[in-house]
Every structure is written in C-alpha cells, then in structure tokens.
Input
Amino acid sequence: MREIGSDNLKAMLIAIAGRIADSRERLNRLDAALGDGDHGASISAAFEKTVAELARLPDPKPSEIWLTTARCLMNGMGGASGALFGTLFLKGVAPIQGKERLVKADFDELWAAGLAGVKARGKAEIGDKTMVDALQPAVLAFAANDNIAAAWPAAAEAASNGAESTRELIARQGRAKYLGERGIGHQDPGATTIALMFEALDSYWREMTNGKT
Amino acid sequence: MSARAHKLINQPQNIVSEMLDGFCAAYGDIARLTDEGLVVRATPKAPGKVALVIGCGSGHEPAMIGWIGEGLFDVNIAGEIFTAPGPERILQGIKAADRGAGVLVCVSHHAGDLLNAELALELCELEGIANVDMVVLYDDISSAPKGREPERRGTAGLFFVWKMLGAFCEGDGDLAAAKALAEKVRDNTRSLAMSLSSCASPVTGQVMFEMPEDEMEIGMGLHGEMGMGRQKALSAGETIDLMLPPILEDLPFQAGDEVLVLLNNSGSLTLMELFILYKRVAEKLAEAGIRVYRSWIGPYATTQEMAGFALSLCRVDDELKALWDARANGAYMKQL
Output
C-alpha cells in the first residue's frame, strides 16, 4: 500500500479520535498539574466533532479532510490548544491541495508544513515543554524513513520519547511557564496528545496493512 | 481557605449559554445576545466610529459581558470557561461590530487569546475584510521582569484600558489613533495580584491548584497561574506594604503623578477587607506624593470564588482624565 486515499485519511482521523477519547481522563490529569485541567475533555470533544463533520462530507479530497479537521479543532476547542492543533492541520492543507491520493512525500510535506506553522504560531522550540517536543522528533523521524511502513512506527516512537522528555523540562511557553521549576516532573499534555496521535496512526497503519507493505 | 466545589449551575456544558441568556435577560436595555451567541450593544453605536471587540474565556464575570454598552465595548465573544473563543467566532464578532470605520480587536495577553485573534485577523485577510487591527494588552508585573513588558499577562488593570478606549471610540478618532490610545493607557498601567485560596473549575469541579490554609501567593494570574511564590499569609497592611512598592518601582510612579486606583476583588474577599486594604494604599500613596484622581473597589474581573485581589494603578494626564470621566453605561461599568 503506497498510496493513501480519502477513505484511509478519514479512518486515520477516526483512529486518532478514538485514541484521544480513550485517554481523555489521563490528559485532563496531566493538564490539571500544568494548566487548567480540561485538555482531555476539550480535545476529545473537538476530535469527536471532527469525525462527525467528516462523515457529512460526501466525497472529500484529502485537503478538505485536513481543512475540516483544522477548523473543528480551532473552533471546537478554542484557547491556545485549539489554535495550535488547528494550525498543525491547517498548514498541511496547501501541500496536498488538489491531490486525490497521497504518497509518502506528501505526508513528509504536510507534516513539515504543520510543524513549521505550530512553531511559528506558538513561538516554541524544542525544549520549551510544549507539543513541539513530541511533534518535531516525530516529523523528522517520519521523513527520515523512505519506506512509509517504517516511517509510522519511527514517528510514533519518536513522539512518545519526545513527550516523555517534557517531564524533566521547565516550560517556556503557555501558562505552565509561570510554574517554573514547580512544573518539573509533570509531562506536557500537548506533547502527550501528539504522541497519542502518532501512536494511533501507527496502529491504524499496522492493522490496515496487516504487517505488509 | 478552600475552593467551593459545588456551584449553582445546571449542566456543565450549558454554563456559558445559560449565563449569557440570564445576563441579557436582566440587562436587555444595555446588551443583547445574537443568534450567533455574541453579546452586543442593545443599541449599536453610530456609524462611522471605530468598533471595539474582545473575545475572552468565560468565568471572569462581570468581565467582559458587563463592559458591553455605550462608552465601552461593542461586541464580546465569550469563550468556554477560561478558554478563548476560536478564530471563526472572533471573525463573526468583527463582522457584527463593524460600523464602517474599522474594528479594533482587543487582546488581554494570554496565549489562547493572542493566537486566536491572530488567526481571526488572517481570516479577515482571506475574506478581504480590511481596516481591522488588534492591540495586545498586559499589566501584570509578576509575569515577566521589567524590560520584557510584552511578555506580561493581561489582568485586572486592563479595566483602565477598557474604560478609556471605550470613551475614545465614541469620538471621531480613527483605528490607528484608537490603537495608540490603548497602548498609551497600557503603558501607564501596572498591576499585581495576590490570593489566599484556590478556586474550583465550574466545568470539572476540580480545584485549580492547591493552596495551604495559612499561605498566600503574590502575583497570581487571572486563571490561577503561578506568580512570584508562596509565603505565609500576612495582615492587610503588611500585604499592601509588600505589593505596592514593586508596582510603584516598575513604571515608575513618582511624586507628583496622578493615578487611578483599582482594587479588584478576585471573587470572595469581603468589601470590608477591600476597604481596609484601600486605607493602606491611600496612606502609602500620600506618603509617596502620588495623587489619587479616582478609585474603584469591587469585583470587575474575577476568578470564580478565589479569595484574593489585584491592585492596579494607572498614571493619567488631562487627556486620560477626560476619557475616564466620559459617559459609560455597561451593566457593570457605569459613569453616568
């Protein structure tokens, strides 16, 4: 399986929504330590809305799926998380505009554009204890593997390691930065969500291809 | 002091909509709720004047719904509890506010408010809506050191900006002049907050942060963000003696200056406590040779039932004094 069509893309977002919904309480708890405790509730609701909106699109192109996701996240969640998770998808729209099916290089481009957008909007770099700590390693690991079947697990592992690395960091962006050293020991909920997203994509890919490429 | 977990609400998911319904039912002569869920003036301002829009998280009432009205804001886009509204809702607010002379989107500096306003302005550009700008406002000296003011949070002291900018936008000044006025008030305003207690999120019922009985935190943000650190709870006089000097040094406010003073109740302090606090503020300012032009004491930007207050000072000149004294008629800000 070397090309991905709209049905697969929709299924990938359903997989993400499911994984986030299952992790709702965990994300709320992580956010309670660093933020105001509603990250799990708000992002799972926004992905649920995304899945419902996608079901309403009769025959969407990949770019429409990504745009719908962006809008549901931005407007469904609000707050900084909505703007940043929305931007991750919004910036991925242009690279896949007009395409019916996506190949590995398209994913490289859409993730890279999403990462650049999130970093620019949030003014965050690696080490700031934000979603970038999981997203950037995931995007780089994905791009470093020419074989898409190897790219998903590599990205998932990198995202997971990146999310765990935030535990020992002092936040330099978002409201957690006001905690200073008091935030050490707590994993960033945004980075955790990114890790969950890439884990869900990896699982989906494994199930769909049954281990074959 | 503990947070109050049981709140008199119905379903948590309906908090914002039911609150807006109730507010507009009570103050229908001043504000009304549109089909899109925007709070707008009952009587729009005259065409040809700059319109003022603010999107912000809910849970800080009477901010900002109480600031819709003559001499104040035109449109408030209320987000979920402590969550800025998304860009498409802000765009709706901009369209609803426009009176043909441009729209200024005011941002109380927090990541969510700023990022969503930026996205909304990008949407305006895509839709060809010109003459829209935003101004980022901050006042909390505890959230970044002097010299890095643009990193500071927006807190209760923006009260001064809202009032004077609102008055300015009843006049004939253009969008650029309105933005410059907002920045002038901002650059003359400094605030510092403290709290003796946490508060519970009305959505989850969970305490926002832990606060031991006999401690207080200086520099608390509007959403319970951490400030300069914990210490043993002090008396009213000692608390002011600790909080006022860093505010005065930061601007700095000097002998001969004239100031507006706000003592903002974060939620559950008593007026008795606030008056006792104010007595010390007045004494200390007099000692420093700083003249108080007007004072306001009350709950203007709250954080649920948090037991704390913010002390805010704004240095004023003749232009700002005239704007301060101009007519305003919002449900919770009146200058009649």
Q: What stands out?
A: Chain A touches chain B through 30 residues (CB under 8 Å). The domain at 6-209 of chain A is CATH 1.25.40.340 (Serine Threonine Protein Phosphatase 5, Tetratricopeptide repeat). The radius of gyration of chain A is 16 Å. The mean pLDDT of chain A is 93.
